[in-house]
């Protein structure tokens, strides 16, 4: 039995399958708040506690295919650090095949630094039936700054690659094209040091999210600038141009500055993030926000819109 290193309070927020589109690669999403010490509280996500404990014990992202809810094929648990301490664990569960979706296509990966050189290798992953892409990935190494995992390491910020088959920075593009993979987001796991990059790769047929955004904090004003994005099956007016700036007091940024943990939301104001509600339709029904910190200072956010 793995003993908890921290206390897991009741999850700060959670989504249900009713708030995730039926063609989504994910079956469910949960965010666990992590306190300093003690015991964990049991809840409806009890099946994922083993992988949450593994992520707390290792300090990095963990992937599993065992001890999961009946509708889940796999799960990835992603720690969020603030001031060199894990304050949240984000758990994403992938969907099993059913009468609606046969063989959902998507990828969970964990890339971590290895050896004396500044490069990362695949630590673990879930690929479903995509054995060829898995085989290619298992032999690849990325230097710091190269490829999606290397860029995440270099920038200490989430990075999005869209149109993977034609993206010059996505070095496994040929495999992505063959398996209809479209968008990837790399998520840094870092306290005082870089632990790993969690990579989520989304397909055309079963997208992980209908929107992915990275917002960076402007140091002079503390406002947020959209630095990277990808959208799928959202209204034409929902997409924001790169360089859009939202005031730090706008939703969801004001709540993130207060709570300083990962969160999920179905609040329409937080999902709009500065958009005109009369134009941004059809929009997402829920979202996940993952913050990144330099010490105690909030530096950027990754947003997944469902």
From TrEMBL:
<protein>
    <recommendedName>
        <fullName>GAF domain-containing protein</fullName>
    </recommendedName>
</protein>
């Amino acid at each position: 039995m793995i003993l908890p290193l921290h206390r897991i309070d009741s999850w700060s927020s959670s989504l249900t399958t009713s708030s995730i589109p039926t063609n989504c690669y994910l079956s469910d999403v949960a965010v666990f708040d992590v306190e300093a010490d003690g015991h964990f509280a049991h809840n409806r996500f009890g099946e994922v506690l083993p992988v949450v404990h593994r992520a707390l014990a290792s300090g990095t992202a963990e992937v599993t295919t065992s001890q999961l809810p009946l509708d889940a094929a796999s799960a990835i648990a992603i720690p969020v650090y603030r001031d060199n301490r894990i304050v949240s664990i984000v758990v994403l569960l992938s969907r099993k095949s059913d009468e609606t979706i046969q063989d959902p296509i998507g990828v969970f990966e964990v890339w971590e630094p290895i050896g004396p050189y500044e490069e990362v290798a695949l630590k673990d992953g879930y690929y479903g039936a995509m054995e060829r892409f898995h085989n290619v990935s298992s032999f690849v190494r990325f230097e710091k700054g190269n490829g999606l995992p290397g860029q995440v390491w270099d920038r200490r910020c989430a990075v999005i690659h869209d149109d993977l088959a034609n993206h010059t920075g996505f070095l496994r593009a040929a495999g992505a094209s063959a398996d209809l993979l479209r968008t990837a987001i790399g998520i840094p796991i870092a306290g005082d040091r870089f632990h790993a990059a969690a990579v989520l790769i989304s397909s055309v047929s079963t997208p992980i999210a209908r929107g992915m955004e990275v917002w960076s904090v402007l140091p002079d004003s503390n406002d947020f600038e959209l630095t990277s994005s990808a959208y799928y099956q959202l209204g034409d007016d929902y997409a924001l141009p790169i360089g859009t700036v939202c005031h730090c007091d706008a939703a969801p940024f004001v709540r993130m500055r207060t709570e300083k943990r990962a969160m999920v939301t179905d609040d329409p104001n937080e999902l709009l993030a500065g958009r005109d509600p009369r134009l941004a339709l059809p929009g997402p029904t829920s979202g996940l926000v993952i913050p990144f910190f330099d010490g105690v200072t909030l530096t950027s956010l990754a947003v997944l819109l469902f």
